Amino acid sequence: MAQNVYDTPSFFVEYQKLARSQHGLDGAPEWPTLRNLVGDVRDARVLDLGCGFGWFCRWAIKHGSARAAHGIDLSENMLARAQAMTPDAEFPGISYQRADLEGLRLPTRAYDLVYSSLVLHYLPTPSLRNLLAEVFTCLIHGGRFVFSIEHPVLTAPADASWKRDENGTVYWPLNQYWDEGLRVTDWLAPGVRKYHRTVETYLSLLLSTGFELTAYKESWDGLDLKPRLEDTGEAHRPYFLFIAVRKPPAE
Predict the structure, then answer these.
(1) Between 199-209 and 125-138, two packed helices, what is the crossing angle to 10 degrees?
(2) Is residue 165 a part of any domain in this protein?
(3) In the predicted model, what is the mean pLDDT of the chain?
């Protein structure tokens, strides 16, 4: 079973303070980039893996005119908040489900789009491989899978924090990049488990599952790509990795 840190009271209290928790998609700097990758969802059947507070499900119905949106999350806290923010009269067609993405089974050709935001790096590689197979199965031919993860440059280092040299220039240390596996970090609470994989591994897993790569991005719209060398900032190294793939159309 995956670690359910979001149901830990101390973690959840801190998580609710994040801009993306309080303002939803508008509080996530990467959302405009993901929005472009998601594209048209009009009349689509949408699945959100790791739906959290349900922001994407509500966007898909209210702004994207999707036919239906189904959100899956392991956290009872997250789902309780999602349900409270999703009145049936305002958001018809949305449903939520508590389930562990490790061992998840999905119906065949039930969705046009599968979406996942900053979730897949919580899964060990065998579980991720199985989940990708399920996503492939649940998509119609020509269906799309769009997701974001923490960039492997971020997850790799043993000490993932900004450093300064003797001249005051900031840099991001990179070591253990090829050493894939569990990383235990302190993020909002101690002992958060994430799994580091190389970019090569992510792409290889997707291609071996049968997906076709349609987009790959390491920056996001509005990112300042010319930071001052003495300032920390996301432009010094990638923070997110965005990938869009599709299930090949039927022959």
Answers:
(1) 40
(2) yes
(3) 88
